[in-house]
Amino acid sequence: MSELFLDATPRTELRKSAVRKMRREGRLPAIVYGLHDPITIQLDSLQAAKLVQLLHGGERMVTLRYSDGGAAQEKQVLLREVQATPTGNRLLHIDFQEINTEKTVHVTVELRPDGTATGVRLGGILQVVKHEIVVECLPTAIPEYISLDVSALEIGDSLHMKDIVFAEGISPVTDLDETVIVVSAPKVEEEVEEEEVEEGEEGVEEAAAEGEDAAEPESDQE
User: Can you give the pTM of this predicted structure?
Assistant: First the structure.
């Protein structure tokens, strides 16, 4: 797992006008919570955006290189909350949590199916029920993602939490009976059959209607 770094400098001016100016100049306001008192910082907007995109909703330990004019300090943090514009094309603020690398944390990790299921080769559909899970581990052992081998799954088979093999030191914080992936039967044939039934019912109704019309006597005309 590659180590992630982010550069930061102090932020002392907290007024809204100062924050707006900061953003215009390509800097992003942020705050670090955790082991000590919160500290307000500023980041390079482009560097922060690349990091957020790389994590893609998951959580990884980030080394925050913090410099206040003296010797640079390093803080190990987790990215906890990202505020962005409604369209998501520009970051507005980031919250970090400082962590103790010797204590376990709960983090969200992406699940990635690996391989092609046997059932899919036979026309089945692979359905991912859970795209991410919460695990407990040391911050230094947070995986980038968890790979799930689905090649042996046939139509009708399911993969549950208890079937996942986790690396040493990583344990799930989830019900082990929870379903993660399902290979279901194709639905095309069922839809075709339903359409044929509906068409058949319409034909019967039309024939009945024609029979009723034929049987109805013509009214006398004066």
Answer: 0.71
